[in-house]
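Lab meeting, action items carried over

1. Structure of the two-component assembly. Owner: GW. Status: complete.
Input record:
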Amino acid sequence: MENFLRTLATLLIGVALGLFATYMAVERGYGFGAVNAGAWRAWPKTGSPEADPYARAVVARTGEIPLGLAEGLMFIADSDDTGAPLDPKCDYTIRGRTPPARYWTLTLMTPRGFLIDNDLKRFGFTSAEIVRERETPLDVIISASARPGNWLPLGRPAPFVAVLRLYDTIVRASASAIDARSLPSVVRGSCS
Amino acid sequence: MKQLDRILGWVPWIFGALIIAGIVHILSILAMPRLAPNDSYSQLAGAAPLSRLAPLPAIAPGSELAPFEDPAMLASICRYDLDRGPLRLRGNFGGDQLILLSFHSRFGEVFYSMTDRSATRGVLDILVLTSLQLAAIEAYDSEDELPSELRLIAPDKLGYVIIRGLAAQPGGRDTATTRLNALACGLEASLPG
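Predicted assembly:
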């Protein structure tokens, strides 16, 4: 009787632990294969036939339609260059170069990948519409209140991530490392 | 001593629980693409018909069909069921606007992707089929010339093709829509020409 109870407990604990690990893996991100560059992180293999089982599980769970290898690459920043999480009470400047790509877009989203409504209905910038200086192709300011320049409004004070997409880029998924200097910096400004 | 014996007695049980946890974890990760109720195919199944290119609604807060979709993109999708026959995608890209195509199987594998730049002379001509269908078509191929279309073997009979067009400027949405409308998809038998 004691052995039966022990076996049952072992089974139950094992199943619970296994499912918990799966839950954590699926809710937390795309498993292995993440490429970090400064504040940015990408999962280049998600959109390829070589996607690992964790990436597949996450994509199936969220319903995301990943960009294919040839289409482009998506980078997400949930923290600034110092590693501090993006704070909706603060201003941020995203500024610098981008890897060679036909177009890029920069969008603000919730950590789950949904748009954050704002009065201007401005959710992001494309490389074609941005007002730029010569040496800095990307210069965007994120703030809850209006700012001069390429202002990306933060509609409501809720957690957010910055999403940088490179379309038709030569940055390949085979790259296991991407030079952080080739991506724009994320710098915190004043906070309210 | 007796207490140590009791503690040691638990060790194999703990190991057992960990091994079971590992197996359950691996199996559930592998099964996730087949079990997840809200994967992209299920979401899109309600939004788009089979074997026809259908525009997806513009991306707006609260009405996204999928997470992490770029609001600067317009998208059309073509769902397919290869049991009905091979799927043909055809059209002209024209212009210099960015157009992206990716081919997704039912359970989330992206088995091919391309941009308008990689098309020969700006023409899109792709046949999606099963390996059986490919063998049947190859039997009729002329031996002298190469087939004009790109033939893709799909890993699964069900899936979808998503075509995205970038509206690089806020005013560019109409142009992007026109570009997307210049592309068509359908069952191989039902497309003229």
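2. GW to write a short summary for the group page. Key points so far: The first helix of chain B runs from residue 2 to 35. Helices of chain B lie at 2-35, 40-45, 131-138, 173-181.
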